[in-house]
Design goal:
There is one protein chain. It contains two helices and two strands, in the order αββα. It starts with 26 loop residues before the first helix and ends in a 5-residue tail after the last helix. Strand 1 and strand 2 form a beta hairpin. A two-stranded antiparallel ribbon has the order 1-2. By secondary structure, the protein is of the alpha+beta class. The longest helix has 17 residues.
Length: 79
């Protein structure tokens, strides 16, 4: 008689893809996605540090920054 054991993941299936993990976003995160991030892409932004400000005009960099922020906020990065 041969005994077989299962190694690795459990037999239960887990969702994958876009719907795999949908965290509940805070009101601040929802507002940021709806208003602040799109505005940043259209009008640019200023990043304030202890050493001074960095002004980023509208264009390719703000578009990419907005895409990054939208993705991270969707993952629950702003709570």
């Amino acid at each position: 008689m041969t005994t077989t054991t299962t190694l690795g993941k459990s037999a239960r299936t887990t969702p994958t893809g876009r719907k795999a993990h949908a965290p509940q976003l805070s009101e601040a995160a929802l507002y940021a996605q709806a208003k602040q991030v799109p505005d940043l892409a259209r009008r640019g932004c200023t990043i304030c540090t202890a050493y001074g400000e960095i002004t980023i005009p509208p264009g390719r960099m703000t578009t990419r920054l907005a895409e990054f922020l939208h993705r991270e906020i969707s993952r629950g990065g702003l709570q």
